[in-house]
C-alpha cells in the first residue's frame, strides 16, 4: 500500500477497510476518546496491508481486529504481529457486533443465491444462514464492508446477491436491508487493537492488559504447564491464550497471551522474565488500558509491596544481615 505524503502535523491511522467496517467504527471510538478528531483515517485492503504500512512509516498506527467473543482470535492479526518488525498495541476497543443482510434495491430474499462477507462474520451467522437461506452459497470477502461495497451502484457486476455487513455499511453503499439482527449469538463483541511502532508503554492505570507472543522451546512433556506456571506462580491471571503454528515445521507453535496487569507491575515483570528464560523467543506486544476499564484483582502476596519486601529480605540474607521477618 503506497500512500501520499502526510501533512506536516497530521497523524494518520489505518484500519481494515473500506469505510463502514466494524474496524472503522472501533478506530472512530478510540480517536474520539483521545480527542483526535482531525486525524486522517486511511482504509487498508487487509490486515497485512495495514500492518505493513505501519512498519513502513506510512501510518502512525493501525486498528485491526484481535478477537471475537464467538470465533476467538483473528489469525491474520495474530500471525501479522508474530512475524515482521516488532509492533506494539497502544489501545483497544470493544465493539458490539450485529449484522444486516443487505442487497441492491429491488432484491427479494428469494433472489439471494450467494452471500458474501468476511470469514469471521460468516462463522458468526452460520446458523442464521442455514435457517433462512439454506440453499445459498457463500463467497468470502476481505471485509464486511468490502462485501457491501461490491453491491454498490456502479460497482462491477458481483458474483453474489447479498452481503452480511454492519448497518452503517448498508447505508453507506446505498443498499436495501433484507434482514436485521442477523447472527447466532446475541451480545457478540469484537475486540480491536490499535497497533503502532514500539514505544514505552503508557503508565499503569490499575485496569491494564499485557500482550505477548511466546515461542515454544524444544518440545517436551509438561512444556505448556511450565509456560503457564510462569504466570500462575506469580499471581498473574490470563484472559486469553491461543496457539498458532509458526510455519517453520509441523508441531512448532507460538502462543498469543493476554495477561491482566502492566509490565510495570512487579508480578507481571517477574512473569515475563521467567517466560523469557523459558521460551525460545518472547515478543512483547504492549501494556495498555483495558477498554472495559475492569480493575485487576491482585491476590494477596502478589502486589508490588510484597515483591519489594521479598527483595529486601533476600538482600539482607546475601549481605549477612539479620533479615526482616
Average per-residue pLDDT, rounded, comes to 92
Write the CATH fold name of the largest domain: Alpha-Beta Plaits
Count of domains:
3
Q: Cα-atom Rg, whole angstroms?
A: 23 Å
CATH architecture assignment of the largest domain: 2-Layer Sandwich
Total strands: the figure is 15
Q: By CATH's scheme, which homologous superfamily of the largest domain applies?
A: ACT domain
What labels describe this entry?
D-Maltodextrin-Binding Protein, domain 2, 325 residues, Alpha-Beta Plaits, alpha/beta, 6-stranded mixed β-sheet
Description:
By secondary structure, the protein is α/β, with parallel strands linked by helices. The protein folds into three domains: 1-96 and 193-199, Periplasmic binding protein-like II (D-Maltodextrin-Binding Protein, domain 2), CATH 3.40.190; 99-182, D-Maltodextrin-Binding Protein, domain 2; 200-325, ACT domain (Alpha-Beta Plaits), CATH 3.30.70.260. It contains ten helices and 15 strands. The strands form three sheets. Strands 1, 2, 3, 4, 5 and 11 form a six-stranded mixed beta sheet that branches. The protein is elongated, with a radius of gyration of 23 Å. The relative contact order is 0.14. The model has no long low-confidence stretch (mean pLDDT 92).
Outline:
The chain has 325 residues and is an alpha/beta fold.
Strand and helix layout:
Blueprint: E1 12-16, H1 22-34, E2 40-44, H2 47-55, E3 61-68, E4 72-73, H3 75-82, E5 88-96, E6 99-103, E7 114-117, H4 119-124, H5 126-132, E8 137-140, H6 144-149, E9 162-165, H7 167-172, E10 176-182, E11 189-196, E12 208-215, H8 223-232, E13 238-245, E14 253-260, H9 266-278, E15 281-289, H10 304-319
Parallel strand pairs: 1-2, 1-3, 7-8, 7-9
Antiparallel strand pairs: 3-4, 3-11, 5-11, 6-9, 6-10, 12-14, 12-15, 13-14
Helix pairs in contact: 8-9
Amino acid at each position: 500500500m503506497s500512500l501520499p505524503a502526510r501533512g506536516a502535523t497530521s497523524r494518520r491511522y489505518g484500519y481494515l477497510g473500506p469505510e463502514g467496517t466494524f474496524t472503522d467504527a472501533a478506530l472512530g471510538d478510540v480517536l474520539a476518546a483521545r480527542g483526535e478528531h482531525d486525524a486522517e483515517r486511511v482504509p487498508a485492503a487487509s490486515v497485512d496491508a495495514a500492518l505493513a504500512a505501519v512498519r513502513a512509516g506510512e501510518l502512525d498506527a493501525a486498528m485491526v481486529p484481535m478477537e471475537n467473543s464467538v470465533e476467538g482470535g483473528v489469525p491474520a492479526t495474530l500471525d501479522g504481529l508474530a512475524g515482521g518488525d516488532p509492533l506494539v498495541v497502544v489501545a483497544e476497543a470493544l465493539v458490539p457486533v450485529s449484522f444486516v443482510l443487505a442487497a441492491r434495491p429491488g432484491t427479494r430474499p428469494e433472489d439471494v443465491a450467494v452471500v458474501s462477507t468476511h470469514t469471521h462474520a460468516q462463522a458468526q451467522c452460520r446458523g442464521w444462514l442455514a435457517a433462512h437461506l439454506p440453499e445459498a452459497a457463500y463467497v468470502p470477502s476481505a471485509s464486511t464492508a468490502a462485501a457491501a461495497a461490491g453491491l454498490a451502484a456502479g460497482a462491477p457486476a458481483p458474483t453474489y446477491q447479498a452481503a452480511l455487513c454492519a448497518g452503517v455499511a448498508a447505508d453507506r453503499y446505498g443498499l436495501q436491508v433484507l434482514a436485521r439482527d442477523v447472527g447466532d449469538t446475541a451480545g457478540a463483541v469484537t475486540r480491536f487493537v490499535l497497533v503502532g511502532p514500539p514505544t514505552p508503554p503508557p503508565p499503569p492505570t490499575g485496569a491494564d492488559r499485557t500482550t505477548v507472543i511466546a515461542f515454544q522451546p524444544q518440545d517436551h512433556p509438561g512444556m505448556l504447564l511450565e509456560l503457564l506456571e510462569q504466570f500462575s506462580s506469580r499471581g498473574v491471571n490470563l484472559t486469553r491464550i491461543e496457539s498458532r503454528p509458526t510455519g517453520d515445521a509441523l508441531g512448532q507453535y507460538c502462543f498469543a497471551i493476554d495477561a491482566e496487569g502492566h509490565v510495570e507491575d512487579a508480578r507481571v515483570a517477574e512473569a515475563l522474565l521467567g517466560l523469557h528464560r523459558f521460551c525460545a523467543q518472547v515478543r512483547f506486544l504492549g501494556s495498555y488500558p483495558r477498554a472495559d476499564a475492569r480493575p485487576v484483582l491482585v491476590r494477596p502476596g502478589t502486589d508490588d509491596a510484597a515483591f519489594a519486601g521479598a527483595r529486601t529480605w533476600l538482600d539482607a540474607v546475601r549481605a549477612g544481615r539479620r533479615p526482616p521477618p
